[in-house]
Each structure stands twice: as C-alpha cells, then as structure tokens.
C-alpha cells in the first residue's frame, strides 16, 4: 500500500531470467516482460545470490537454505514460560539457538533448530529439489562448512526427527518441560550466506556496483533491524541519483 501511494507498482508471479546492463541503465528480463531501470535493488532472500550473480558475476558466497522448526507448548503447560528465554549463543553459528518465545496471544513456542533444507523453499522434510542440492554441494565454501560442522549438522537432524532429543535440549532452559508438552509447530527457512572459505556469515552483507545494490545476507535480528536496513539501502540507492 505504501509503495502504491508513492507511485510504485508491485508485480507478482514474475521470475527474473536475466539482467543486462547497458550504458546508464539495466534491463531486467522476466518470464512475462522486460523492465528498464537505472538501479536494481536485490532483496530476493533465498534467491538473492542467484539474482546478485546476474549483476556481479563473481560473488564469493552462496545462499544455503536452513529450515528452522518449532514446537508449540500445550495450553496446560504454557505457564512454564512467561517471558523470552534464550540460551547463551554459540559464536560459531549465526543463529540464537533453540529458545522459548511467548507470543502476543499467550501461545508459547520453542525453537527453532537449524537443519539444511533440501530445497530453497523447503518448509517440510519432504521438500526436495535436486537442483538446489546440486548448487549447494558444488560450492566449495559449503563443502568446507560441511566438513567443519558435520557433528553439529548430524545432531540437528537427530533432534529434528527425535522428539525426546529435542525435548532434552529444551530442558537445559526449562527443566520441567516434558515430551508430552510439545506438539509440532510451524517452520521457517533461513537464507544463510556461506563464504567461499567455508565461513557462515554472521553479519549483514551488501554487494554493489554502479547499477545494483544486492542485500545478500540479513541474519537475525533482521526483522528487528528491518527499518535500519531499509535506511541503509535507501541511502545507497539515493547516492546514485
């Protein structure tokens, strides 16, 4: 609504196929039409690396999808958590760890974990894309990260498939929580940027040139920081006009 009030248009259900840069402007080719623009701003999340590579061919990172699964606490046991409860974060990983959150309506959720999703929109274990798997495994940085964090990854998959193991992790924060108190909740997918050296990038990453501003990594607390990120993108854009 805000975009439309400012004279903008929102085009839905269009897939970007290519971006061509000419003298002073770019052409964005989609499956439906062609858009001409002086500046491309890429905030494509899970697909930001693919869009970014159309504007800056040699990007030294790849977006790897990691699914974060939640459990909901049954109503009779929600009194165990009255606030946000977080563990001490592990500095090796760009996420906060499994934690408890009391939502605005009083519902309490526990999570998320972090398992490699076999599809960029892999919200369920059964979601699989051979293309996305191949692109991840062919990237040297992800190969290095897998070798370095193989133990962590196996543990996350085990807890994902074993409710008792998931519960044991939660009991470090609330010892009274029981397996019977948990029911499956929602899941989200993180767009995790992995560097060519195998580093899991923990900070915001922008890649830009004269014709494009690419937001390639916006880890937690991205939602909390969204207005500040928006200001940064706007400043970068306005500097080109």
UniProtKB/TrEMBL annotation:
UniProt-listed Gene3D superfamilies: D-Amino Acid Oxidase, subunit A, domain 2
InterPro entries: FAD-dep_OxRdtase (IPR006076), FAD/NAD-bd_sf (IPR036188)
Keyword Flavoprotein: yes
FAD dependent oxidoreductase domain boundaries: 4-234
Molecular-function GO term, any one: (S)-2-hydroxyglutarate dehydrogenase activity
Pfam families named among the record's database cross-references: DAO
Gene Ontology CC annotations of this record: cytoplasm
Cofactor(s) the record lists: FAD
Key word Disulfide bond present: no
Keyword tags: FAD, Flavoprotein, Oxidoreductase
Coiled coil residues, start to end: none
Family: Belongs to the L2HGDH family.
Protein name, entry field: FAD dependent oxidoreductase domain-containing protein
Native source organism of the sequence: marine sediment metagenome
